[in-house]
């Protein structure tokens, strides 16, 4: 962009630069040494190799050339190093480390680790990043302690050379005196500045976006003259850039987390809680699905056009249609006011004609029915814009709800080049009434650097129990010990800042303790409320109460347990420039015409408007602008939507008051749509986001409010939304084996209670019976709540959680040798858990303890956790009901119900299309058979109607029910089929009842897959379900066999029980090799970190590594299984429930078999040492010194080596070009570990 003319600089004046190098643009905030100093902003492309090597260097060169050369005659040409004599300060945030991590272009590293754990960082916690991706690109997943610490250490070694190389290259662009002339500092991920010498890879992951958080925190969270401190609204930071959007929250303290995931790698270091989602101005636009009679879905992202080739409007070869193009077509970005930096010579404006033509081309490729009347480029572009806005609303809702905050009490502080174009619409959708846009909003990350603090911090691990002190009991020596520890850490921090050139007397000190409740892994860094002393009572008042308040708010309950301190932390800060309070100004009303740069034709919800375009540089404090209107800043555009009013503050920023009331045009449109209930592709996509958002929010509520390790930490649960008949509407992809099963449970309760007076508002229902009530196995308890509107049931919400114990003959309720259902625990066919809003504790307690009345059987061994988790499931359902009612209030019941059906139909069409393609390629009859270890066959014949896409899945020929526990109820078969179909469709379709609508099931009674009501089934859910997936995928020739097992291990004694599932090898496919050491198909739960395992339980983990060579050979080799070796430190009872111990995972198309698994006990030493084969299903005792060795199966290979092959993969819908930005932050970490996406 061109630089403005300014007065000559003062003699001897020095320049200050703050630079944010983003993925698409590099933003520069400079202070020019005129009299008085003049702030200046500019922007240039981050990548433009045809014109310059490094964007930050180029930005500095342009400014010095423009403003210094006329007075100093110093040349600043690209061919020579920049003379640094006129630079006094240089602050920078960079994406170098992030890009090196995303692109895997760091330095080679050597990992030194204890023998037996060489593959630990690759295994991570075993979960896979996308549960529906058969060609798993498994990135290491987040875990605490040794895994995350090891990943952080490795990441630092991997990335620091990239940082060093970049810094060396950057400094080479200047003369050798730069370090002497200027104070050079770089932004760390925690929002603090550090010196060049101390800037390391693992601290630089969020270097770029951190400046934006500091920027909005210091500019938005400020008191007005007329208000009190308590009236300051907390802010949601909304930084919408070219490739992604960063979301964060600020309420007076920077939001620091100490473990976060970026590009699949866990970094355990202080960093701002910035949650990145793959949605930005460069997000690509697609029309997907639909046929001659049904609408397509508008899909935004996650692929991004990036800066190369960029959106079509950027005028680069190969440009891709993106959100920016929609704004250009709609007149929300004005080319004449946008920098002329496009085209081969960087001198052309945005290409409106090219973008318009691209939308017209999309229209011409679809039938009128598929677009439902959207027949102009602007209508289609506006539709995509609404979908994009909803995609960005979803993570903001999730971020606040996950932390227990009300989004409507926040202001939306919006920045980034694209953010102000979307902010009003997003605030409207979220129910927020205020939007803040800083005058430097387009480059707020760079401006934030100029306001940032210099920071040094140090953390020291500890292991102290504070339970006695919290109860008022003084512990001898503890006060002095804490004082000394903090004093030592403070001195280290001060010395660090002193070396960076700061005065230690100006240091602000913050002290924290990392606290958690005994028996949990959820630790929270907690600051003192007030006192700097550390007596017993002060600690309780300052730290324990702060911790308790935080825990209560975030998780919805408190625990009466001892408090443990895991770490001491000190953060020393040298404050950056501060800003005064916002002064009240006189209301000047609408600006005079002299402040206008004319009008512009812009598109809003009711069509085209000729709107005023106001020049921000000409507006004065007190001016008010009523929407629709546009305000143009030097480097961004602010769109004022209909019903919104913008006010210019005393600082020259923009505060927009947002009205949620709808315009008459909006109301007329919605009333017409409600009357006609016609399917609209825009609303179809929006409702897809909203329905899924409800299921996700339920899951976050359940994780927050539960107490058991199984649900809160292993995340073994699922939440879903259902139609009035019990059909699935939206199921957040938590645990795959639950995907299709819960709808059977809901349908059963509807039928059961219909004969008993029906369901009433205020009642909540509970069940777990696999054969009679649509359950999966007894530990999975389902809680179901009807949603009433006008005295009618309009939806159901349900949550299913795996309870760690519900009674039965073995601890953990997973007995390997059960033969009847009653041996596996409490059975609940139908029960009211809540009646008229009252939790029925006595009734449910009697049911859970009922097995204990039988000989050699037991009731639940952990009633307290059962009751707490059931209450959490009720709370999750209550959240779902609230969000459903909000959705109905926002649109109306008829519209919501209509789109519930349309969403189901969309999924149905996608599956039918895939099945018709399969029939055309592979024939209309597909068959497959596989055998359980006991020889029981699972036989499948699929008959497809090539015209309609209907299919019959016929399991006739499957073996009879067994006198064992690997019988599987029909709901498990439904789950396996819906999961397999969703995998084979290949595109991101809604997951609901529509996926099964084309499918007819034939599952003969009395077989392994449809056993009698009293048959044992605990293994069917965790073993047979895996083999079902193998059989379905084999019939479609989609994938070789995976490990076919979950390797369920339990051990314990009278005092405790522990349960885990162990990963194995994934089967290979036509275009991918199987992944090693990953959970496959029907499970995706996490495994306990080795350090936590050994700290919490009396065992030693000797090995956890990949079983090299256990995958099948082939053109595409299968994934390897794992080896896990555990030694008890006290006598324990062990149970193993596993499969594929005798029948190896098969390959396809000539691929080799994977190796079978084997379970061994090593007992004795020397000549007495012996290895005992335990078998696949066994309960036995382990003595001190014994070693349990589990070798999990590998996956089958695909294709003979040297040959090719193709199965159903050839007909899957594939994503287009571009790249997919990777999320990070606490929300991404939670989502990735809970949902696997």
TrEMBL record:
Region spans: Disordered: 660-679
Residue stretches making up the Hydantoinase/oxoprolinase N-terminal domain: 17-146
Residues in Hydantoinase B/oxoprolinase domain copies: 680-1200
GO cellular component: cytosol
Bias type Basic and acidic residues, positions: 663-672
Domain Acetophenone carboxylase-like C-terminal: 483-646
A GO MF term: 5-oxoprolinase (ATP-hydrolyzing) activity
GO BP annotation list: glutathione metabolic process
InterPro entries referenced in this protein's UniProt entry, alphabetically: ACX-like_C, Hydant_A_N, Hydantoinase_A, Hydantoinase_B, Oxoprolinase-like
UniProt domain Hydantoinase A/oxoprolinase: residue ranges: 149-457
Family named by the database record: Belongs to the oxoprolinase family.
Protein name: 5-oxoprolinase
Source species of the chain: Triparma laevis f. longispina
